[in-house]
Predict the structure of Iron complex transport system permease protein.
Amino acid sequence: MTDARATPSVLGARLEPLAWLLLAALLAQGVALALGSVSIAPDELFQVLTGGGEALHRTLVLELRLPRSLAAFGTGALLALAGALMQVLLRNPLADPYVLGLSGGASVAALAAMLAGLGTALVGGAAFAGALASTLMVFGLAHGTGSWTPTRMLLTGVVMASGWGAVITFLLAVSPVERLPGMLYWLMGDLAYAGSPWPVLAVAAVALAAMVPLGRTLNVLARGGLQAAALGVAVRPLEWTLYLLASLITAVAVTTAGSVGFVGLMVPHMLRLRLGNDQRLILPASLLAGGTLLTLADTLARTLIAPQQLPVGVITALLGVPTFLYLLHRSR
């Protein structure tokens, strides 16, 4: 039997969608840099990117818009990649970090840090710790004293997400009025204070490089734990690795942009409907498409009612809720 990896036509079929997605990502970055309360023409944008242009345009593009658009791309890439990994792990198209309660745990810890008056760096660290704590709680409760199943994990995550939502409501109710706007914007997802984009981009690149070599193994795991074990896959260590990695990159994304929902749900599933279920293609495609989606969503959030800005989580929720309902209807 011919190895598909050695067939040029198969390799080309995998690379073509990635090339189109890469082009879409570059175009999304161009749109993000050009649009805003002050629009910049394409020729002026080119001059700025090549070292020329007006001083005002250089400040807008290089100091404000470019870091934010790259942070949006990195955050969306991480969320989509985490969603793709969780959907393989749980073999369920409704799995994503938002639904499983990881974002909720991060939000509770971050809001508690804000309520305590801690600085931005400590708020990010608290969000990171909250996401990891929620990971351990969901995984531990789902395992319990009985057998671990994807359905049990998904139901445990949904219940944990509801519980975190109640804690978030309590924290908002007891918070001082002057701190509520910042807490609400963080809770809805906001890239205005994302900071340097390089850490989130570096984590996305490292996570993708770690997962793509496991693509064939993930394809086997997606068919079921028993079949994977029969074919020699170490199922339990692989499942722990996937869940911890997905939780880690979710924590980094939440630390960067706050709680942004539905990206990890929409992107991987829609790509599977279009490209199939080969994880060697889905994982890099999810990274590119997730980054592109959140870049465009953030551009829309800061231009829709400019000079005022909307939280990017509002835009992704408006897209994600109908998608979630459609997937529920489709799974009947």
Summary: Confidence is low (pLDDT under 50) at residues 1-6. The longest helix spans residues 55-90. The chain has one domain: 4-330. The radius of gyration is 20 Å.
